[in-house]
Write a structure and sequence with these properties.
Blueprint (H helix, E strand, L loop, with lengths): L4 H9 L21 H14 L14 E4 L2 E5 L7 E12 L5 E6 L10 E22 L3 E29 L2 E14 L2 E6 L7 H13 L1 H30 L14
Antiparallel strand pairs: 1-3, 2-3, 3-5, 4-5, 5-6, 6-7, 6-8
Keywords: Biological rhythms, Signal
Pfam families: JHBP
Protein name: Circadian clock-controlled protein
Length: 256
């Protein structure tokens, strides 16, 4: 299922290299608030290091693991209810991300809004699902299987809310909220064995979803965005806990 952990992670993990004596040859360090430089450096990392850089603890981003997530959990009362869980998930296609704009990351990161904007031509989800409930003219559902999603022309805007804290005379940036906004041109989904004993009904339910994907997206978007936020926070809390904010940028006297 949709998840964007990687997007925010790609843009910022480039700073991990600053812990080392040398920065990757194909990526420039930047001055505070230099959005053009930051976007160019992020794109250089995405283009040149899709498998990550173990020497600087930059993880691969061509395959991104997604946490298990309950997407729908209706109250089990009345004539119709639904439960839908996604698990053993990965996302593919983040290596084709283009960062279009970065704002903020000033000397004092709390004084301006931090934003990251980007796009991916095709983001692919693969994983497992578990569905149960009562739907479709009171048909009982209890199915498990493989699922996949294609998100076409996927665009994202991330807003970071941060504060600073001091440890060992060093200043660190702590992210306490990530607010994602997402747009896409098409969502194509397939769920194997939705009706295990009736392949024609499985095809029908998948076709129903894909014909009405906009309505499904609008209905599920709050839970999808909440998943993004929790994953972003879990990914970056450790990164910024260990790396002083001022070590992420060039000094005023330095040039990239």
């Amino acid at each position: 299922m949709l998840y964007l952990p990687f997007i925010f992670w790609i843009t910022l993990e480039l700073f991990v290299g600053l812990q080392c004596q040398t920065f990757p040859d194909k990526v420039n360090k930047c001055h505070y608030g230099d959005g053009k430089c930051l976007a160019e450096s992020a794109n250089a990392l995405i283009r040149n290091y899709p498998k990550g850089i173990p020497e600087i603890n930059l993880k691969p981003f061509d395959v991104v693991t997604v946490k298990d997530w309950v997407l729908v959990n209706d109250s089990r009362v009345g004539g119709a209810w639904y439960y839908f869980q996604l698990f053993n998930q990965v996302n593919l296609g983040f290596e084709n991300t283009t960062i279009t704009e970065i704002k903020g990351f000033d000397r004092d990161p709390t004084k301006s809004k931090i934003e990251i904007h980007g796009k991916i031509p095709r983001l692919v989800y693969k994983g497992k699902y578990h569905a149960k409930g009562r739907m479709l003219w009171f048909v009982d559902i209890n199915s498990k299987g493989d699922s996949s999603s294609d998100f076409l022309n996927f665009r994202f805007d991330l807003t970071l809310k941060v504060r600073t804290e001091y440890r060992n005379n060093k200043r660190y940036m702590k992210i306490y909220e990530v607010v994602p906004n997402l747009r896409l041109d098409r969502w194509i989904m397939w769920m194997d064995d939705f009706f295990p004993d009736n392949f024609d009904m499985t095809i029908a339910i998948n076709n129903l979803f894909n014909r009405n994907w906009v309505e499904f997206w609008n209905e599920l978007e709050p839970r999808i965005l909440l998943l993004f936020e929790t994953v972003f926070l879990s990914l970056f809390e450790d990164l910024f806990y260990n790396i002083p904010y001022d070590d992420l940028f060039l000094a005023d006297s330095e040039f990239n």
